[in-house]
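Just scan this pair:

***
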Amino acid sequence: MQRARVNGVELAYELRGAGAPIVMIHGAQGDQTMFSGLAAAFANNFRVLTFDQRGSGLSEKPAGDYSIAMLADDTAALMEHVGFSSADVIGVSMGGMIAQELALRHPDKIHRLILGCTTAGGPKAMRIGVNAAYSTQPMSAEERGRALAEAAFTKGYIARHPEIVAAMIEARRNTPLDPAVLERRMKAAMKHDTYDRLPGITCPTLVITGKDDALISWENSRIIAERIAGAKLAILEPAGHCFWLEQPEESGAAIRRFLE
């Protein structure tokens, strides 16, 4: 793990692999470990950058208000730090919101854009479910980990892979969430609104999600794809919010087809 100070905050990041640069941007209460499998799969052909955003994982968690624009600027600055003049960018959930802002604020930084299980936000967005996993009240690792697993995966997947619940609990035990920091991040996500600006994204774009997403309805992906000229839409089923974990082969193949 490496560290860099950008925009006044120290971020933890990791570079792996060789080839064309690709950046992976995680979701609201996750960190870069959520891309462990995906990053490893792409490291054979890409130089993969994963990182913990401000307020997440092993990065600093400064006080004060956060915004999606701020997190997009952090991403652009970190790309500069590691020598990525531009890259393919994958953002999922809140990371997809950050990726949208990155494309709008720093269009020169993005070669191709992949938006996963995310939303344009604003009044035209479809249902966004918030369950106990996103509570800003203190919770035990067991409570938060179990709630997140139940929100992020389909019931069928959990039935076939009950170990995912234990893994989520262990992740929360190893990296406990500060409710105050989560609240700052969630407030930033809830203020996100790119609907009217999405036509300004001109890079090749893939919008991908799980049909059974209980947190951010798949219809939000349809809306985004309709607002970005030439965008491709991929709907995986059965798959919940963490589609790249639930359907690793199918999602990986869809992303590779787009990048190729």
Notes: Strands lie at 2-6, 9-17, 20-25, 46-51, 87-92, 110-116, 205-210, 232-236. Residues 153 and 159 are 10 Å apart (CA to CA). Residues 2-129+179-259 form a domain with the Rossmann fold fold (CATH 3.40.50.1820).
